[in-house]
Amino acid sequence: MFNALLVDKSGDRYQCTLTAIDEAQLPAGDVTVRIAWSTLNYKDALAITGKSPVIRKFPLVPGIDCAGTVEVSTHPDFRQGDLVVLNGWGVGESHSGGLAQRARLSGDWLIPLPAAFTPRQAMAIGTAGYTAMLCVQALERHGVTPAQGEVLVTGATGGVGSIAIALLAGRGFHVVASTGKLGESGYLKDLGAAETIDRASLSAPGKPLVKERWAGVVEAVGSHTLVNACAGTKYGGAVAACGLAQGMDFPASVAPFILRGVTLYGIDSVMAPKGRRIAAWNALAAELDPAKLDAITHEITLAGALDAAPDILAGRVRGRLVVNVNA
Fold this sequence. Notes:
Number of domains: 2
Structural class: alpha/beta
CATH architecture of the largest domain: Alpha-Beta Complex
Low-confidence stretches: none
Shape: globular
Strand content: 25-35%
CATH class of the largest domain: Alpha Beta
Helix content: 25-40%
């Protein structure tokens, strides 16, 4: 038996509880992981609260991330005692996930824990930080450089935004952080933001094109914010879109794309190939300042995740929440 969050649904009744479950209840997989740390993401908060139909089968353990030690493996890439990281692959949605003390998974979904990180640090990064690196790498492949001007990061106090700021600043970019929490400007500047702007300047319906400002954008919000980010991107610039906190809609004009040659990159972290994942994690190991990682991280327990989920959805959480599943 081990502790886990378990989501179940009966008729219209949806609930997530902290409970003890038997390992025999875990789904099929060729690697069993003793989890050391997990994390709480926006998608996990949706799953826990039932605010969106994230979970596709019941009962299910939520949690799209985990880091821990291999206990049993029949997969050729992993042996007992290996430290591993999981991000995405539908885990926590259609396959029981990481908000538990054990998980049984496919070895094809796992990557080795980079030597630079402890399991706790890996979960301080989590899917949010790994997604941030995928966004930064997309801008890099596009050819965006610090010499071309400012880069915008939206949803700046969230997990993706916070880590994107640290990564871009570390690469020498002039980072402008968009946030609804201007009182957190000091926090954002400590991460490396050169300036902050009120998210209200981007979140309302806007014009098809506005004055060119952004050489590149890491956009974690969606809806009108994404539209306005595209409208203000410089000729030939790029926008990496990875989030939908404001909405899934894209009420846009084609003007930025056909008149300014702006490129919109969709960033998927859930089903990204293993090679791309390993490259992103290796880059995080090389570039991310552990001190900045510590500054954005707050620790909670499995029980605490139940209370924290509504706060994430309401935008009341700054940075990253790591979950000590054994506390």
